[in-house]
Amino acid sequence: MYVVMKIEIYKTQREVFILGVLALFPEKLEGHIFSADCGGIYKYLFTSRSNDHLFEELMEYQEKGYFRFEEKTDVELGIDCMGRCTIVPFGYHISGVNSQKATDDLIEYLKKWELGDLTTGEATKPADFLHQQDIFFSALAGAYGKNKKPIIKWSDLYGEVFSYRDHTLPPFWELLFWNQLVDSRLAITKMDYGKAKSKENHKLYKQPFAELIIKDQALLQRVTQALDPEKPVDYNARVLMEGRLVCVEIRGDKTYTIAKLDDGGSLYLFMQYLLSSDNFNMDLKIEDIRGIKGCASLKTLTEPVRYCGFNKVLKSAFFPVMKKDRIHFKNTALLDTMQINALKKQAVKIVNKS
150: exposed, middle or buried (C-beta count within 10 Å: 0-12, 13-18, 19+)? Predict the structure, then answer.
């Protein structure tokens, strides 16, 4: 019996942007008239070059329940920069924007993106969720150093700009919307497209950007710490052992088990060694670890760390340096909400294995 798996294709950045507008800024669509004869926001919301094709495009959104629209003639689109009234012979009036449905559908898509369940249908695919988040946080730290209401641009993350209709491009809007709608770590106060010249072919492209407010205090501390590495960092998480259990204690919450080790085994002794007070916040070489009973034949330090329950997210928190022959271990860390969620998922896996 064959199992048929439904594969979902990455949306283009324009498609994700439209859902974000519907979810976060429905007033940009509600009550407005759109026509293939006008520019402005129309150019990157809708791609049709004729009103007949625009009708078909709008109909798709109407059938999905995002809004309603109706035809209008001799419509006034507003005042241009020269103070002239722009009138076009034909347009479509949008009403009844269903912001909640757009929000629900966008969150569903973002969770598939987080889990890696999307494909481009081609030989190339953007890096995974965690890698993209690291890129985003680095760019956010740089932008926050210049302005406490930072503006993040596509080029801040990827350095180059391309056509926003290409669905093989690495995510931009997914990162912004995930951190607001799924994890509530920031708030987008403005989002738009501006012109940027490609370094590769010198063409002008529409570059996405967003102005943000950081809401999550753990994320804010992570950003400010990146700007000033010497600044003392508060913590909300601590690694400890309860018998043969490796645990992470969240201040004000509870203790989560991330691994169950064999009592007296090499991994158990490895964790005991890390948690001895002399080794807190220390660089440890593989030669140091090989001196532990049962660890003399270790060829790399990445394996025992992984077997002790530190997945990719937790490694980045408690092992800021993670090399094959050298590690830097901290028994305390400041976990943001994404990392705490990863901790809880790891704990669920351990419970299910029991």
Answer: buried
Query: Taking phi first (over 0 means left), then psi (-120 to 50 degrees means alpha), and beta for anything else, what does residue 100 get?
Result: alpha
296: tokens are: 């003399």
pTM: 0.66
Indicate if the alpha-carbon torsion angle 225, 228, 230, 232 is positive or negative.
negative
> 348 CB contacts (<8 Å, ≥6 apart)?
none
Let me know: does 309 contact 258? Beta carbons within 8 Å: yes
State which amino acid sits at residue 49.
R
Contact status, residue 132 vs residue 170, Cβ threshold 8 Å: yes
Q: Are 330 and 318 in contact (CB under 8 A)?
A: yes
- What is the band of 164 on the pLDDT scale with cuts at 50, 70, 90? very low
Residue spans of the domains in the chain: they are 30-96, 101-221, 237-353
Q: pLDDT tens, 232-279?
A: 556 678 899 988 999 999 876 788 999 999 888 888 988 988 887 665
Short-list 12, 75, 79, CA closest to 46: 12
Please, are residues 57 and 48 in contact by the beta-carbon 8 Å criterion? yes
Q: Are 305 and 284 in contact (CB under 8 A)?
A: no
pLDDT tens digits, one per residue of 171-220:
899 999 999 998 888 999 999 887 766 666 566 667 889 999 998 877 88
* Residues in contact with 123: Cβ distance below 8 Å, sequence separation at least 6, in sequence order: none
Q: With contact defined as beta carbons under 8 Å apart, do 92 and 77 qualify?
A: no
Q: How far is CA 172 from CA 142, 154, 157, 255, in A?
A: 16, 7, 8, 35
